[in-house]
Write a structure and sequence with these properties.
Four copies of one chain form a homotetramer.
Chain A: H1 11-26, H2 33-40, H3 44-50, H4 54-64, H5 67-78, H6 83-100, H7 102-113, H8 122-131, H9 133-142, H10 151-170, H11 179-189
The structure holds a DNA duplex (21 and 21 nucleotides).
DNA sequence: CATGAATGAGTCTTCATTCAT
DNA sequence: TATGAATGAAGACTCATTCAT
């Protein structure tokens, strides 16, 4: 009542953290609320005090892990420097951020697929955020750095490749330091002789 | 009567078909064997007569839907024509085949993620099959069609973009007739002015 | 209301009581948890709230019915009076106690056989407890009441006969008031002319 | 049709043998007909061709293992020699025969308890057979070898002790060569100084 | 004699959720 | 806030048994 509660060790926070971890690793349907409360060291009624239902808990987990992408895209769209540099920077942070937060990645992947898990309008959010990268290309076109063309397809190639790099990295494959530069370079120069 | 039974409406086949459909749409954990047998018009003991367990059923579903990719890649690697044409052909069949078999796509996606669903060595198969497309680029390099470079990254850009096109298509977005040509063209020419 | 709950009609107690009764009469494997909870007027989740599994429930039933024997043997070993009187007293209480608690007898018999029912280290406990009766004979030998000899075999004859009397009694056969005296008398005097 | 079938490897015989083994080791309720037919290398319809039901199969198993006791008692009652020698001989064969056929012992024990397993009138048969040993004592009384007395109790002491020796032996405890002589000697002479 | 295929009812166990305290 | 206790429904899986061949 008196102070803002920022207690990271509160029951609610522990539940959210453990739920995120479990939903990410086992999926939504395969994770039971019993597992969650045991991992969080609480009881079921406490969980239901803070969250309306298992579905609601999942939604909040997703929401809490959805913050980073928009900022990342903003940075690329509004940042300084050439389009090329900003694309490289975006890919680099996107992939390395994902590698450092594997649970977030898996959770959002699960939520995006919509095959397991309650249906959320995450995919649209996700797609449209990534789609905004086309603005970077448009800016590059405006400055003469990039020739006119199908920016949407270009963004898809970059992001699709980045996803593959990210998932491979999560599976243990090494991610070269300059992977982002190489991808963007390839996109810029093309492969034709 | 006494001949080989090719009855596609046998219990086993119906179970496999309905299980594939349900696993694809709801995920592994969220699909109950009761749902499967009710959809297949059989009983649980019959399911367990043909399949060792729910896990085993899932595995067989995946196996049965895994056939196409290898052939597709073979066609691209061993086919006639320029590297460019073969890449375009591959992407076209890959995406349009996926659009016509949404359940297969979702099932394999689920199996590949491994977050829901029993852990299968599908991802490696999948990745290595797609990786073989690099051979097409190598052939193009040999014929002078393509300049030397990082073929693996190029393949990832193509396949990553194709996946995005495919999933967007499955979500209802229109897939242009010439999407494959445009993607490959972009990859060949690059976006740099 | 706020005091210590000694409610013998609590769910846990009712489950234990009914489980003991059913396990004793039908055996472990032939008794279903559904039967137990229906007899106890509860639900299956409640049973699993208090007991880890059907096995665990059985174990607790056995444990709860295992109390009496040790005290009985203690009484015989440490009691006052001649060895003969103490043997007679033991046999009498052993058999009549069993006749008044048929479920306990059958449950422990089942647990002891180990053919049905989860394997418990009850048999050893049981055997070694009864074996302690040899001390009574040794005391009798020390006082000159009993001649030196094979006390273990003597105990086995007494207990074996008592078991037969007990099971016959449970089957409906009458148990004479002086059966214990007669058995011990026979053991003391022998049958030889 | 032509010859008497004594084929010990026929399906029926294999089923009986494996069923006896399994019923003896796991109990009636805990043994499934699937286990039986798999152990016997047959199929369920074959089992039901030969036996009316699981109950019937159990009954036949018991019947097939019930042969020896009557003959054993006959031998003791009608045999030559002193009562003492015949009692010793009976106990010896009873226990050693049991030690060599542990499955038979456990099966009959299960059937006798009637707690698991369908209810059979085996116990009465068993008891009355053993009860006939009292005749041996009566003969001994007639020849002056044994003094008049409670022969039934004497028989119970012998058989009860023998059962304990037998079960201890099945549990791994050594059975001395002269256990029978010692038991009978104890019964004859008594333990009193 | 033997079998592949099938089943209704049942097994043990756990689910997400809620109540009184 | 938090909890011990409770529940209806459902989970995966197996039971004894049977039928057409």
């Amino acid at each position: 009542m008196a102070l803002v509660m920022m207690d990271e060790t509160g029951s609610r926070e522990r539940i959210l953290a453990e739920a995120t971890r479990l939903f990410a690793r086992k999926g939504f349907a395969a994770t039971s609320v019993r597992e969650v409360v045991e991992a969080a060291g609480t009881s079921k009624p406490t969980l239901y005090y803070y969250f309306a239902s298992k579905d609601g808990l999942f939604r909040e987990c997703v929401q809490a892990n959805l913050g980073g992408l928009a900022q990342l895209v903003d940075l690329a769209v509004n940042g300084a420097g050439s389009a090329r540099d900003r694309l490289v920077g975006f890919l680099d942070v996107y992939v390395r951020g994902g590698l450092q937060n594997p649970d977030t990645v898996k959770l959002l992947l699960t939520a995006t697929n919509g095959v397991d898990a309650p249906c959320l309008p995450i995919l649209e959010t996700f797609r449209s955020e990534l789609g905004r990268l086309a603005e970077v290309l448009a800016q590059g076109e405006a400055t003469g750095e990039i020739r006119p063309g199908d920016h949407t397809s270009a963004v898809r190639m970059l992001c699709g490749a980045a996803d593959i790099v990210l998932f491979s990295g999560l599976q243990g494959e090494a991610v070269p330091d300059d992977f982002a530069e190489r991808l963007v370079d390839l996109l810029y120069r093309g492969i034709a002789r």
